[in-house]
Amino acid sequence: MVKICCIGAGYVGGPTMAVIAFKCPNIEVVVVDISVPRIDAWNSDHLPIYEPGLDDVVKKCRGKNLFFSTDVEKHVCEADIVFVSVNTPTKTQGLGAGKAADLTYWESAARMIADVSKSDKIVVEKSTVPVKTAEAIEKILMHNSKGINFQILSNPEFLAEGTAIEDLFKPDRVLIGGRETPEGAKAVEALKNVYAHWVPVEQIICTNLWSAELSKLAANAFLAQRISSVNAMSALCEATGADVTQVSYAVGKDTRIGPKFLNASVGFGGSCFQKDILNLVYICECNGLPEVANYWKQVIKINDYQKNRFVNRVVSSMFNTVSGKKIAVLGFAFKKDTGDTRETPAIDVCKGLLGDKAKIDIYDPQVSKDQIQRDLTMKKFDWDHPMHLQPSSPTSMNKVNVVLDAYEAAKDAHGICILTEWDEFKALDYKKIYGNMQKPAFLFDGRNVIDADKMREIGFIVYAIGKPLDQWLKDMPAVA
Ligand SMILES: NC(=O)C1=CN([C@@H]2O[C@H](COP(=O)(O)OP(=O)(O)OC[C@H]3O[C@@H](n4cnc5c(N)ncnc54)[C@H](O)[C@@H]3O)[C@@H](O)[C@H]2O)C=CC1
Ligand SMILES: O=C(O)[C@H]1O[C@H](OP(=O)(O)OP(=O)(O)OC[C@H]2O[C@@H](n3ccc(=O)[nH]c3=O)[C@H](O)[C@@H]2O)[C@H](O)[C@@H](O)[C@@H]1O
């Protein structure tokens, strides 16, 4: 029986390995992590991450050919294929701070693999890493190998949170990069055979190592660039009376452009887009390509602009101050169907509103109060000025309430900000909500989930991203 071990039981390691175990009953899969609470949760009825369909897949294989363990060394030692799916955040200190990927976790995993291995292994980069990381990993493994043969493969993951299981079951493609040597080709074939259990072989792309590593950064940069492009257009739509939904639709109908990933929003979030683009920017700078670096930097700058623009719109619409006013924040996760809040635009929007002394009541169906408090008190790293940390003042947390439903959040509020596109926000009784709010009652839709005209009929003053402005908003222009 082939044995797979995955180091890192996070958003990628957990679901990816669960699907491999589910689709390959002849393979034993062990997911290991240094975090005891995380592994305990994977072994419990309350998995550490919320992902539609995940519970089902885990329940079907856990204890059969899928295991979660903290005994990292034992399972690495026994494995034929070791996936490394540890976190690769942006460095916050030292060389490249604010841009470069922090490979500390990766390096320590590689050193541990070299230390404990007693047989040949294929080591798979699952984490998103800078191009050429495999070369560094190879050096670590080879210098400590005691005669053991390691083959490094790059097999980046393209799943999106909230649809992870769907994406893993039916990936657009699987990408495997390896050394162009007979041993490298053999390792690529071995990994290809794993995926071939359920992915059509023509969708398994095999490349050299550097192309695979760079393709992952490029894919995320292209995706984020589409969002920044449509968000940039949303500002122009508001200035001109065009409707961004109509523009996206018309543009996306061109088959060369396509309709996906053109939804204007309050800004993109998530643990990867910003980090991976910053990483790309750093790599470009290190390779003497400042023009290319600046090009990609703009994607993040527009994202920051969009979040600021939203806050400014809220404040300016409400007579240029939200001081002492209650604002209901509906949605805190970075997108629907996940409880993940990493880099969620809600953090910046809430901090912006608190900066103007608002009182905010937050409701999200999947994010806990503790998590929201951690996020809002965490110092924010300013990637553009790496020496600056922007703390949230301790007093402003007194002005934050985390509540259990949208109605409670909106009661007596002056305004509502929709920051995550949860389906339930489309189905709320807005008449009832309006009845319980201060007047004039404002509705700021950062995700374009509500029917603005219907809301106006109820009596709300409505702002929706990239939509024609009503007279009120035209009279109170926001300064971005
Ligand atoms: N979150 C996502 O949707 C996607 C993430 N990625 C990439 O996958 C990688 C992992 O991301 P996530 O799963 O979101 O991170 P995560 O933070 O959820 O999980 C990483 C796990 O690795 C563990 N870990 C760190 N060092 C370890 C070590 N030496 N030994 C054992 N365990 C160790 C941590 O305790 C943590 O549980 C990142 O490089 C990310 O860029 C790629 C595609 C999608
Ligand atoms: O490397 C990663 O981590 C992953 O990053 C993204 O996945 P994810 O961040 O989970 O979620 P997305 O669906 O891409 O959404 C990211 C952000 O963009 C926003 N978004 C997305 C699409 C859109 O049209 N408009 C928009 O504002 C979302 O609301 C969210 O805040 C990519 O979609 C995955 O392919 C990739 O594997």
Question: How would you describe this structure in keywords?
Answer:
480 residues, alpha/beta, Rossmann fold, 2 domains, 6-stranded parallel sheet, binds 1,4-dihydronicotinamide adenine dinucleotide, binds uridine-5'-diphosphate-glucuronic acid
Question: Care to give the gist of this entry?
Answer:
NAD(+) binds at residues 8-13, 33, 38, 86-90, 127-128, 161, 272-275, 342. By secondary structure, the protein is an alpha/beta fold.
Describe this structure as you would to a colleague.
This protein is α/β, with parallel strands linked by helices. The protein is elongated and about 75 Å long. The chain contains 18 helices and 16 strands. The chain has two domains: 3-199, 3-Layer(aba) Sandwich (Rossmann fold), CATH 3.40.50.720; 242-464, NAD(P)-binding Rossmann-like Domain (Rossmann fold, 3-Layer(aba) Sandwich), CATH 3.40.50. The chain has helices at residues 13-23, 36-42, 54-61, 72-78, 104-116, 133-143, 164-169, 182-195, 209-240, 244-252, 273-286, 290-317, 345-355, 369-377, 406-410, 430-435, 452-458, 471-475; strands at residues 2-7, 27-32, 66-69, 81-84, 121-125, 150-154, 174-178, 204-208, 326-330, 359-363, 380-381, 389-390, 400-402, 415-418, 442-445, 461-464. α1 crosses α3 (54-61), α9 (209-240) packs across α11 and α11 packs antiparallel against α12. It has a six-stranded parallel β-sheet, with helices on both faces. The structure holds 1,4-dihydronicotinamide adenine dinucleotide and uridine-5'-diphosphate-glucuronic acid. Uridine-5'-diphosphate-glucuronic acid is lined by residues 128, 157-161, 220, 223, 227, 261-263, 265, 268-270, 272-273, 334-335.
